[in-house]
Specification:
The protein is 57% helix and 5% strand. It is mainly α. It has a single domain, classed as Orthogonal Bundle (Arc Repressor Mutant, subunit A), CATH 1.10.10.10. α1 packs across α2.
Length: 147
């Protein structure tokens, strides 16, 4: 079964929280951790690659914390997932043809390649802005059913 690791999922949730707060100043990791139900220690491990990739800015001091380095509309879920997970290919042979002696005659490799492309297209089509809108809609729907 193909699965994203907690690294990819939690980084996306961290970035979603920053996107929800976009334009309201820096956020502390402890606040993100509380809102997303993720340990602060785990989030600390996710920040460096996000900063290095230019997706997050960090500030120190009394008003320090983290903010998105770009608008939520400019960051896709694919940006985050590839950064954290690496390749989106479901098999190694799609990324490295030399790994398999049957590459020239393998028809299943074509299917795995198509699957990887569909995954990539789906994640590329969803921005943090889209996730913020989905989040707001879910909150509204939840309040409608729990009056």
């Amino acid at each position: 079964m193909m699965r994203l690791s907690t690294k990819g999922r939690y980084a996306t949730r961290l970035m979603l929280e920053l996107a929800i707060n976009y334009g309201n100043g820096n956020m502390l990791l402890k606040d993100i951790a509380k809102k997303q139900g993720i340990s602060e220690g785990y989030l600390e491990h996710l920040i460096p690659p996000l900063k290095s990739a230019g997706l997050v800015h960090a500030s120190r001091g009394s008003r320090g914390g983290y903010i998105l380095a770009k608008s939520p509309a400019e960051i896709t879920v694919k940006d985050i997932v590839i950064l954290m997970e690496g390749s989106l290919s479901p098999t190694e042979c799609v990324d490295d043809y030399d790994i398999c002696a049957n590459t020239d005659i393998c028809v299943t490799q074509e299917v795995w390649k198509e699957l990887g492309e569909k995954i990539s297209q789906t994640l590329e089509a969803v921005t943090l802005k889209d996730l913020v809108e989905r989040h707001k809609q879910k909150k509204e729907d939840h309040h409608l059913y729990h009056i």
